[in-house]
TrEMBL record:
The keyword Oxidoreductase applies. Keywords: Oxidoreductase. InterPro entries: NAD(P)-bd_dom_sf, P5C_Rdtase_cat_N, STEAP_metalloreductase. It comes from Trinickia soli. It holds the Pfam family F420_oxidored. PANTHER family: DUDULIN-RELATED. Residues 4-91 form the Pyrroline-5-carboxylate reductase catalytic N-terminal domain. It comes from the Bacteria. SUPFAM superfamilies: NAD(P)-binding Rossmann-fold domains. The lineage of its organism: Bacteria, Pseudomonadati, Pseudomonadota, Betaproteobacteria, Burkholderiales. GO terms for molecular function: oxidoreductase activity. This is NADP oxidoreductase coenzyme.
Length: 199
């Protein structure tokens, strides 16, 4: 199984740290050339490999960690997304509700990635917490997951476990997923909730 992170800002780097902590190789890509990411990637660890966008999109599991509307550009990079699992770590804070057609932001993102197994996840924690060791207070930091595809959740939940987090499935995008998404300038109730599941 191969992994990549698209977007190498604060959230992308936080996710990269989670992979590096466990020695799991992950490709990283952004609008910048791979060479421009090299210094930051090397500082995180040898498991973090800068690549071009097209090379990073060859991964089986792809984390989307870009500003919200940039998902459209990423979606156009492949003709279809069959065989890919996409983990949406974006947030649409400040995006007017009418621009989303009344849908949850994750539903808008999911529509762009035709054929992908789509899971909302890793977006409710601030980047600093996401980057930190998830083993805390005698337990593991919780990561919430939501998806309309039941078959996609076990794979992402298993990856959460490998990375040291405690996955909690909230259900579908329009129900459980709505608990971890911004709506206009309002944050959903589970955003920024730093919860720990006892071991």
């Amino acid at each position: 199984m191969s992994y990549s992170i698209i977007g190498f800002g604060a959230v992308g780097q936080a996710l990269a740290r989670a992979f590096a902590r466990k020695g799991i190789e992950v490709a990283v890509a952004s609008r910048r050339a791979p060479e421009a990411l090299a210094t930051q990637a090397q500082a995180i660890g040898p498991a973090v490999i800068p690549k071009t966008l097209q090379d990073a999109l060859r991964a089986d599991v792809i984390f989307l960690a870009v500003p919200f509307w940039e998902h459209r550009t990423i979606a156009r990079a492949l003709p279809n997304w069959q065989g890919k699992t996409l983990v949406d770590a974006t947030n649409a804070y400040g995006v007017p509700v009418d621009e989303l057609g009344g849908l949850p932001s994750s539903a808008v993102t999911a529509r762009a990635f035709t054929g992908a197994k789509f899971v909302k996840g890793f977006n409710h924690l601030a980047a600093g917490l996401l980057a930190a060791d998830p083993s805390v207070k005698g337990g593991r930091r919780v990561v919430f997951l939501a998806s309309d595809d039941d078959s996609a959740v076990p794979l992402v939940a298993a990856l959460c476990e490998r990375l040291g987090f405690a996955p909690v499935w909230l259900g579908t995008l329009d129900e459980g997923g709505a608990l971890v998404q911004a709506r206009g300038r309002n944050w959903a109730p589970l955003i920024f909730q730093d919860l720990v599941k006892p071991d």
